[in-house]
Every structure is written in C-alpha cells, then in structure tokens.
Amino acid sequence: MNPAERIEELRRLIRHHEERYYVLADPEIADAEFDALMKELERLETGNPALITDDSPTRRVGGRAEAHFEAVDHAQVMLSLDNAYSEEELRAFDDRVRRGLAENSVVPASVPYVAELKIDGLSIALTFENGVIVRGATRGDGVRGEDVTSNVRAIRAIPLRLKADELAPQARMEVRGEVYLSRKSFERMNQEREDAGEPIFQNPRNAAAGTMRNLDPALVARRGLSAFFYQLVSDAAPGSHGETLEQLRAWGLPVEQHWQRCEGIEALLAFVHEWGEKRRALDFDTDGVVIKVDSVAQRAALGTTSKFPRWAIAFKFPAEQKTTLLRKIEVNVGRTGAVTPFAVLEPIFIAGSTVSMATLHNADDLARKDIREGDTVLVEKAGDVIPRVIGPVLSRRPPDAQPWQMPDTCPRCGAALHRPEGEVVWRCENTSCPAKLQRGLEHFAARSAMNIEGLGESLVAQLLDGRLVKDYADIYSLSADTLAGLTSVSVRTDGKEIQRRFGEKNAAKVIAQIERSKTNELWRLIYGLGIRHVGERGAQVLAQAFGSMDALMAAKIDDLQDTHEIGPVLAESVRNWLDEPRNRGLVDRLRDAGLRMEVPPEERIARAAPGPLKGRTYVVTGTLDAMTREAAVEAIERLGGKVAGSVSKKTTAVIVGADAGTKAAKARDLGIPILDETGFLELLNDIGRAG
Ligand code: IVH
C-alpha cells in the first residue's frame, strides 16, 4: 500500500472511530489504539505534506487563534420558536395546526408530528460543500451570525467530512442544530476553573456559549463540546422531518436519539410527560420538548409568522422550585482564600436529587435578598445542576430571625477577612490557613495537576491533622511507614465508629505515585502551585514560553505580558506569586526533592513573538455589534495590548460602540483618538494580515 492509500485508509478508520466514540458513545477500540492510528496518520502526513487536506482528522485544530469572528449572513433566516408552558397551550397549538390544515372546511382529527428533546445549548449552522465542512456560524440575530468555523472544527462530534454510503450529500447544503456541553464536561471544566481561582459558569449552556466565543480553537477542543443536529436546509431535503433526521444520522452527524413520531396531541402529551422526569438521567441539559409537524408539505401549507414557524412549538419544562427550611448559613474557604456563604438546608428532593446545601453567591447578594437563618426559603435548581436559594418567604419568617452578618474572621484559622477594593468576595489572606492548605494540597495532587493518585481529600486531611505536611514540598519527604500508620475514623450506618489503618499496601501505592510525579511535565507543576488565574492552559503556555522554572522566576513582568495568550492580570499574578520569598523557598525545596524543573528542548516550540499591540492601552465603551465587549477585550489582550476601565492621558485610543456615554466624551476632551467598531475591526484585520 502506498502512502496515499494508507493515508486514505487511516482517515476512514479514524472517522469511523470518532463517530463510534463521540457520536454513538460506543467505542470499538481502546483510546491507545485510536491514538496510534492518529499518530501514524500525522507521521505520514508530515512526510507527505502534499497529501494533507482540510478534512483530515489531523486538521481539527489548525493554525493559531483568531483575532476576532467575522460577521456572516445566513442563507436562510434562522427562525426561533414560539413557546408553550402548559398542556392547554399545547392543545391550543394543535388546534391551530389542525384548523390551518383543514381542506374544504374539514379539520383533520390528528396530525403526524415529531417530538424531540429541546437541547439547552446554542444554535449553530454548518455549511457542507460536497460533503466537506466549509463553514460554521452562530445564530446571531437570525439574519447575521458570527463565523466560528475554526471552533466548530474542533468539536469532535462534528464530522469534517460526511459519510456518503447511502446517499451522497448535496453539492452545497446547510445543517442546523445545537452545540452543547455535557454535564460531565461541564463539571470537569468548572472544577478546573475553581482550582485555578477563576469564576465558574452557572450552567452548561453559559459554559458552552462562553467556550464558543473563545478565539482559540485549541481551548474549544479541550473543553469537550458536543452537538446535535435537527434541521437540513437544502433544495433536496426529504419529504418528512423523521426522514430528515434519519438522513442526518446516516451522514454521520450526531442526532439526539430519543426523538419520536407522534400521531396527534395525546401521543405528544405522553412524550412530554415522560421526558419531564426522564430528562434528569440524561448527560445533557434539556429545557423542553420541540414539537414539529412531520410532513414538509403540511409545513409549507402552514407557513411562518415574521418570527416563528407556525408548524413548530417549544414546550418548556418548568424550572423546579421548592421551599424548605434554611437551617444555617455557613462559609466555605476555598484554595485562594475566597470565603463564600452557603446555605445548609433541611434536605429536600428537587429536580431529581436531594439537596441539603445551596449556593448563596456572595455576602452582597445575600444582604440584598435579606436571607436569614431560620427562614423558609425558595430553592431552585438552575439549569438542573446547581441548587440556589432564590429568596425568603417573608410571610413565614420567625419573629426572632436576625439579618445575617459575614464573619470578620476566617472560620478555620481566625485570621481577619479582607475584601479587596472593587471585589465582592471576602478573602482569608493567611497563607498558612489550614482550609486553604487542604484545598491547595488537593489541587496540587489532582489528576489535572501533579496527578498523585490516592492523595485525595481524606488523606490530605489526615496529613494536615497529624502535622505531617504544611506545604507541597513536604509531600516529597513522606515515608511509606508514616503513611501506613495513619488511621482514620468513620461512622458505620449503625452508628458505630470504626478505625481504619491506611496500611502498607496503600502506602506503597501512594509513595510510588509521589515518586512518579517528580518526572511530570513542568506545566503540571506550574499549574499545581495554584497561582491565581493560572489554569491548565496558562501553565502550559508559561512552560512552553520560558522552558524552565529558573527562566520563569527570572522573567520580568514585561516578559510575561509579551507572551502570546498571557494577559496583564495573569502576568501580574504570576509575578506577585514568584516575588513572595516563602514561595521562592517552596520552589527551591521542590527542586531539592528532585522534581523536574525544565521542558526538554525537543518538546519546546519556538517562543511567541511579543504581541503587536504591546505598550498600547485601549478603553472599550458602548455596545458593539459584531462581537461582545468581552471578545473585544480578549482580542486586544491576546495581541499584547491592555484594556483599561477609564480614559486617561495614557489611553492609546477609545473603541466606541453604540450608545457610548461619558467615556467617549472624555476622550474627545483629552484629544484621544476614537475608533468606531468598523475602525477597530479594520485594526484587527490589518494585524491579522500582517501576522
Ligand atoms: S428547531 C425553525 N429543534 O431552541 C425551527 N430547535 O427556542 C428551528 N433548540 O433557536 C429550531 N433543541 O436553538 C429546534 N430539537 C430542537 C431544538 C431546538 C434546541 C433551540 C434552537 C432554537 C431555540 C428556540
């Protein structure tokens, strides 16, 4: 077999296994075998660059991050759906449909529908040319969206080339669906963000939307987004919706599998009731059921209003809310010292699980809602995931209930709490606070960091209780004997306490893991140190850019900021951490313990050049059209520029969107250049072309 044939064969195999894994969740081979196929293909393509094509599975994440997203027009308007919130509203919809389809004043008794789960994500439109993906666009306002092709390509459930076994895809066609984040990926991602001291996302939909707005496809690939498709826009679409879904599936596109043909309203209502409960067991969020007339001819007869098709409706599941007793308000101390209040509730079954704790966000929020201990409170499971307290039921407040006060000292170590100016979060600044140490050590040993299996919450607690460790470096002086002798107490279901020895076998395993962790890649150590704002990705970038811990420690703030993808906040946080003598001592002790402190030269790629906007400071004000303000800020920071909150003489230019207020006026007063959105996009484009 010549290289061209083998390359084709490998691509076919890889596409097949990607479908088995990411679309059908039913892999046929082990991850390692899949990786071996991928490696072989990469090797062959490197040796035969002329044979590389855009639809090769190796090309999912190509090139570099985008400067911004282009606005693109949709071939056909992306309509939204009318909503129904009750059985009556659904029956009214069915009546309208049947009356709309009456012939010679004879209203049909029932209409064939298709019911699908409504995926709680964000809509996406993909264009395929001769079966190969050429464009991915967000919905935007329905007429114009954003070109997110490179991000869409990074989603592994989306095939870069469609299968043509049964029917070849049309020369040019569009498929529409929903990009979403599974609950599992959402939880993993939030855990990582929490570990890195970054704000967490409220629900999978926000997380998916936030991820799709990111300009770096490599990050999209790592977050594990997925997608389901439910619409085909083409001249040659099948005559019914059910057949369309089957066709999309046969082309290898992911289609949510629980859709059902339903004849008439009663069958629809049965589907809606069934999934009102069953949806909780799914690995993705669904906020309702979408009901569509099955026949394309009937759809055409019904037509659309200016906003919605008359042949479809979204039934929205009610967000489950219940009242329960708020027993106590306690505070939790996180790894970064953030002290946040949470509610201890009288346990209550809500939206599929028992809730006994709920977030109260922050002290300000709590005071605003005037939530007090002893209150009966209304609890909601937002997005069916994170329970939150909505507010008190005032009519049921006990007469002696007192407003809650944030403690002024840390509940674990007693140090005074501080609230940095402009922030809502209170912090314990004591670097040796046991609560912070506990979370810090758990993070250091976590799978995503130093990956020390067996060193989890309970062992860390025992080590801290026994004063056997007080920082990360102490982990490396532990002996198997010390670990083996540790005992923990647990309470059996019958109330009896039992003592458990950690034991020789467990101890040997953990010690072996600790030993192995010394040879980890440098980025794992940088991430494990738990420097604020440094997530996995940031740690990888720093390790790559500086190549060794020594170089990183010697880096000036400007060197850090000049690094591609490192913004001013992260740079400052890293510099501050490294300037702290205690932290420098810790790094020295880790080095003495034998941890790897370098990136081997062969694993290092060339360091990125300083950003083209280095030394420039911008202010962004007003509403932008083509991108969110966050995307604009991100684009500037990525190119090495800074973004300030207020206009001063140091401002390079002010970027002004619609309805800009005083900042634009101040810029005019100070004679500072003003860029409208078009000017800003041109600037980004020019840089894109130059780079
Ligand atoms: S059909 C013209 N089907 O819900 C019909 N939409 O609230 C267009 N959605 O904009 C949509 N799951 O983003 C359809 N199975 C499904 C869906 C679905 C989620 C989203 C979609 C739409 C929004 C309307």
Provide key terms for this protein:
seven-stranded antiparallel beta sheet; OB fold (Dihydrolipoamide Acetyltransferase, E2P); 24 strands; D-amino Acid Aminotransferase, Chain A, domain 1; binds 2-(butylsulfanyl)adenosine; Helix Hairpins; single chain; alpha+beta
What does this structure look like?
The protein has 691 residues and is of the alpha+beta class. The chain has six domains: 57 residues, Helix Hairpins, CATH 1.10.287; 234 residues, 2-Layer Sandwich (D-amino Acid Aminotransferase, Chain A, domain 1), CATH 3.30.470.30; 108 residues, OB fold (Dihydrolipoamide Acetyltransferase, E2P), CATH 2.40.50.140; 66 residues, 5' to 3' exonuclease, C-terminal subdomain (DNA polymerase, domain 1, Orthogonal Bundle); 82 residues, DNA polymerase, domain 1 (Orthogonal Bundle), CATH 1.10.150; 74 residues, BRCT domain (Rossmann fold). The chain is 36% helix and 21% strand. The chain is built from 24 helices and 24 strands. Strands 12, 13, 14, 15, 16, 17 and 18 form a seven-stranded antiparallel sheet that branches. It is globular, with a radius of gyration of 28 Å. The mean pLDDT is 89. The protein binds 2-(butylsulfanyl)adenosine. 2-(butylsulfanyl)adenosine (IVH) binds next to strand 3, strand 8 and strand 11. The site of 2-(butylsulfanyl)adenosine (IVH) has 14 residues, from strand 3, strand 8 and strand 11.
